[in-house]
Amino acid sequence: MLIGLSVYLYTPSKVAPILFGVLFAISTVVHIYQNMSVLLNLVRAYLLIGMCSKAKTWRVTGTLPWAGIIFVAGFVTREISIYHDRNLGIYIASIVLLLIAPPVYAAADYFILGKTLYYVPYLAPIHPGRVVSTFCGLDIIVGVLTGQGGSRIAQYKLPDQVKIGEALLKASLLLLIGLFCCFVALTIVFHVKCVKENVLSKNLRTIMILLYVSCALILMRNIFRAIDIWESGAGYIERHEVFFYIFDGVFMLANSVMLNIWHPSRYLPQSNKTYLCTDGVTEREGPGWVDKRHWFITILDPFDIGGLIKGRDKTAAFWETDNGHDDVTVLPPVEAQKRIEES
Questions:
Q1: First and final CA of the chain: distance in angstroms?
Q2: Which of 10, 118, 128, 179 is the most buried (most CB within 10 A)?
Q3: With contact defined as beta carbons under 8 Å apart, do 54 and 273 qualify?
Q4: pLDDT (tens digit, 9 = 90+) per residue, 181-238?
């Protein structure tokens, strides 16, 4: 391979893309199986007791298979690009795919935290539904910037496009890191509240650990990408392929496999209406936390500051009247205590 005429600044490994592509494919297949298993359980529940409309756990990890598929596609195109190392189009495709895949894993973390806040609504620092809409909405903006930047920065023959691409990638990575730090801060606030109120069961503790580890892996990958972009040109990181496989390969694969082994659906209830009582043991089926504001207002004011001022948040505090409330029922012991007993 003639390095001077190649889109790569090093002699790329021909084995590594195949290895990571296969490993991500295996993890993705497992995620698909796990999600399908949850869906089959929902169908059985609907046929037996008509509860399918209340069960939404499958949505929590629905983004994981998509992230894996994007990674597989990215490594496949990278392998093809290695054998066609003067083809800029294939190289750009591999760059863009491998740039947008990690934020899809981050979306799974948003869903997991949102689901957890539905489970412990009285300690939620933000409306559970707003976690997904706010962070995923901003993630989409980051994804657009990343895709545009990645496609331009790979065009070595067009210096102006490279500069625009670098600016877009720098902006997107800074926004992504800042956004993710806010998400981690939100997770820590919720965790501290659970500890203070003594409701942190084994299952909740497991969810918190999963979120922390996943966030750490994704954040380290984002910081690596930011350093790579800030080096510009033929920096040390860009000239050594091993960094790419550590942060975009090993770290992201570890995140995917971790969520295979400790699948969140094992630790959270199926319905968003199921919540943990303030005693930290009893589970109840309530009316659910519904935000009746217009969707656009929820994006502009995810913390419902207006509701805090007007006292609207108190009207939704159904957990404060769970004893004898017509809309709140204690779940059957077999259904409600199954996860609690595991802890």
A1: 57
A2: 118
A3: yes
A4: 999 999 999 999 999 999 988 889 999 999 999 999 999 998 988 888 787 666 788 8
Closest listed residue to residue 204, CA positions, set 258, 257, 118, 268: 268
- With beta carbons less than 8 A apart as the criterion, state whether 12 and 82 touch: yes
Residues 6+ apart with CB under 8 A from 68: 24, 25, 27, 28, 31, 256
**Residue 316 has which token pair?**
């939704």
- CA-based torsion, 46, 332, 129, 221: positive or negative: negative
Residue tagged 């390969």 (tokens): 249
Task: In whole angstroms, give the CA distance from residue 120 to residue 321.
Answer: 15
Half-sphere exposure for 63 (CA within 13 Å, toward CB): 16
Residue 276's SS3 state is strand
- 327 neighbors 318 (Cβ within 8 angstroms): yes
Report how far residue 198's alpha carbon sits from residue 151's, in angstroms, rounded to the nearest whole number. 49
Distances from the Cα of 130 to the Cα of 20, 138, 208, 272, angstroms? 34, 12, 19, 14
Q: Which amino acid is at 141?
A: I
Cα–Cα nearest to 15, from 237, 245, 228, 246: 245
Strand partners, 330: 284
What residues contact 245, with CB distance under 8 A and at least 6 apart? 13, 16, 20
* Predicted TM-score of the model (pTM): 0.82
